[in-house]
Structure formats: structure tokens, C-alpha cells
Amino acid sequence: MTTPTSGATVIPVATLRESAGAASKFGNSPAQSSPAVTFPLNRWWVAGFSWELGDTPIARTLLNRPMVLFRSPEGGVAALDDRCCHKDLPLSCGSVEQRGIRCGYHGLLYDKSGTCIEIPGQERIPAKARVNSYPLRERNQILWVWIGNQPGGQPDTDPPEYAFHDDPRFQFGGDRYHYEAPYQLIHDNLLDLSHVGYVHQKTIGGNPTQHMNAPFSVNVVDNIVRVTRPMPNTAPPLTYTSVWPFKGLVDRWQEVEFHVSHLLIWTGATDAGAGNADSPELNGFHIRGFHGVTPETDTTTHYFWTVATNPHPERTDAVKVLVEQTASTFNEDKVVIEAQWRNQHRFPGYAQVDIHIDAGPNRARRIVAALTAND
User: Fold this and answer.
1) I need a labelling partner for 314 at 20 to 30 A (CA). Which of 103, 276, 302, 359 fits?
2) CATH number, residue 102
């Protein structure tokens, strides 16, 4: 990761790992490059983070579409089909130049629109010498790609804003995980924070009984699901006490906001009875989590996450500790979700029994199903 020139401080975690997930094989022309609709389209999806794009291109399959992501020397970003129109070598095997990306097989050069602009040894460039391009934008150090229901589709909105990455009051770090499981299982997990008392007992969990018995509310507005869970007068979990000097019991909160392409999680605590926790400037510990959950294929997923906090002046290593412990919790989630998916194949056809904490995940699934059907 790189440190931004302004705004929040980025705390390095680990070298981002590229997956070798399955990739769909497209036809030989852009007009043939539309996979079957199995995800909501005509929207921005998270493709990665700004710090991932350096001097070399990145191969990444998103929504069954193998893409190459790259940054030009002047700083612009682009996303193309990861194939040369000549002999189908992945463009991610090539190199980035001033004018675009050059195929590593016979040297065809493509600009950021996917148009071939140079064929070494040949003056005439066929009009069909091009590959699909996808609108790719940077905002708040997040890479957003627009995936429409037709090749060449253009966005009708700006990418979502996530101001905490550029807010000088916060510091953050993050990473990317690859899941051998469908993306909606991750939605289910994030919208159900009652599980943290069992899965994450050594970090953010706390008392499992308090989590399961805590009252919560679910609200839906414009395809956004919001789950809130206050937990007043409770013992702070280990992660909290590691990074903030609480005096004893705390008033704790959990708020999850589901958007189709990403989730926002706001958690934290104040000393019990200390007052309002609506602002990071008011005597409390705040965690702002960004979770970009992007399908790779129908059964594999990219999980792009960051965690931002308002560091306490007495805990100079607080952000580093928080990021490391957050990564540990996500490793625990990954084990559970992938085991869950494998077991669903071992017991096919069995109906799942809903319990009270499924209200949020079920609402999100209905939204995804309706949007996918409309595409």
C-alpha cells in the first residue's frame, strides 16, 4: 500500500493477493462479450484499491468478466477485457506504456478505450481491432468499475463516496480477500453481527449472550438495508480495550448499511453513560468499516475491506493493532463462510430454518433477487 498525499493515513497490512479464480471464455468480438445475467448490473462495483495499481497491470475477474486493470503513466486508470483481439493472450501478461497497454505476444497496443492504436510492422489497423472497455473511476482511494447489461454501457451516476478514507481525523488500513463461496453468503455474515460473540470471541466479540439477546432494528429505504443494534452497559471486547482506554463498562453500538455492491459498518463504544456517540469528536471509540463485496464468478468472491478509526492520543499504535485484529476476524469469517458453502454441497436440497437474526440478510437477498430479475 502507499500513503496518500492528503487525508487519512493508510496503515500497510499485507501484499494484496491475486486470485486464480475461474474465468469465463468470451467470444472473439466485443459484441459477443456478455455473460448471462446472474448479478445486478448497471451499477458501480468495487474493483480494487488505488494503491494496488502500480507499474504493472492486474488481472481480475469481476462478475464473470475477466478484466485487466492498469494505471497509465500520467495517472489515469482503465479496465479492459483481459484478451488481445489477435491471439487471445491476456493483456495482463503485457506492459503498460504512455499511450496504453501493449500485448506481450505480438505487441498490439491498446488505449484506455480498448481500441488498438498500433500494430508493429503494419500500418493499417482493422476497425474491429479492439476489446471491450469498462468505465473505471477512483474515488476516496477505491477503484469502482461500472458494469452494464450491454457491452459499452456508460454510467448514469458517479461512484459512491466514502469520505472516511480522506478524512484527516481518521486513519485506516485494509486488504483484499478471495473467497471460495458466493458473494451473498458474505452479505449474510456482515448483516448478522450477532455471530461475532461466537466466531470472534478473542477480538471484537464479547459476550455471546449479550449479542444474541440485544434488540435490533431493520429498516429498508431505496434498496438500502440498515440494521442497528445498541448494546448499552456491556463489557468491552478485547479489541476495544487494546486500542482505547475505557474506564469499565461501555455503551456499544453496531450499525450495518447494506448497498448492493458494498456494505458500510459503523461500530464503537463510549464509557457507559458518557453521552452521545454521534461524532468522532465526542469522547468515543469509532470504527468505520468499508466492505466491497464483488462477485468474481457465481461461486467465488472478491472481498475488499478497510477499517478506519479515530485514534486515541494515548495509544500511538492503535490503528496498527485495530487493522491487525480486524484482519484476524475476517480470517475467522472466511473459514466459517467457506465451510458453510462446502457443507451446502454435502447436504443439497435441505431447507434452512430462519431465526430472528435473519431479518436483515433476508431483506438484502430479496433486493438482490429483484434487481437481478429486472436486468
Assistant:
1) 276
2) 2.102.10.10
- Model pTM above 0.70: yes
Residues 326 and 236 in one domain: yes
Burial 141-153 (b: 16+ CB within 10 A, else e): bbbbbbbbeebee
Residue pLDDT, tens place only, 238-258: 888 989 999 999 998 889 999
Range of the domain at 127: 36-147
| pLDDT attached to residue 18 | 37
Instruction: Summarize pLDDT for 283-333 with one digit per residue, the tens.
Output: 789 999 999 999 999 999 999 999 999 988 888 888 899 899 888 888 888
Quote the cell numbers at residue 215: 434488540
Pair (133, 280) in one structural domain: no
> Would you say residue 30 lies in a domain?
no
Q: Residue 2's pLDDT is what?
A: 38
The alpha carbon torsion through 82, 84, 85, 89 (nearest 10 deg) reads -100
Examine the fold and report which residue of 113, 147, 181 is the final residue of a domain before the chain moves on: 147
